[in-house]
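Can't paste images in this forum, so I'm doing it all in text. The chain is below; anyone willing to post the predicted structure tokens underneath?
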Amino acid sequence: MKSQNGVTVMFQPEGRKAVVNHGISLLEAARKAGVSITTRCGGKAGCLMCKVKIATEEATALRPPGDIERRKLGTTLEEGVRLACQAAVWSDVTVQVPEDPLKAAVRRKLEAARRGEEDELW
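Text version of the structure:
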């Protein structure tokens, strides 16, 4: 995945990627790739809405978490959870972006309707 022009960031499950400069945040890389990662705080680690997951073996592809990210995420850092607004890209990496909660609810409703099931949410 290494690119001569920068660092490649692959966003799953959409399969979109962006080639970015070393040190760019995952949030900026996502925007470049056309991947929506929700945030309300403008990338200041205030809202915690931009959580993404990185495989343990790829943890070194990102800048180590700073004090703010460590305080906000605590032990979930050990599970590969990072804040896209704070995690800077150092080398090629694959990022798991959680499904938006509203989209997930709609998807479950549609799947249940296709199966002819009742959905407790609605």
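The CA atoms of residues 57 and 80 lie 9 Å apart. The helical segments are 26-33, 67-73, 101-115.
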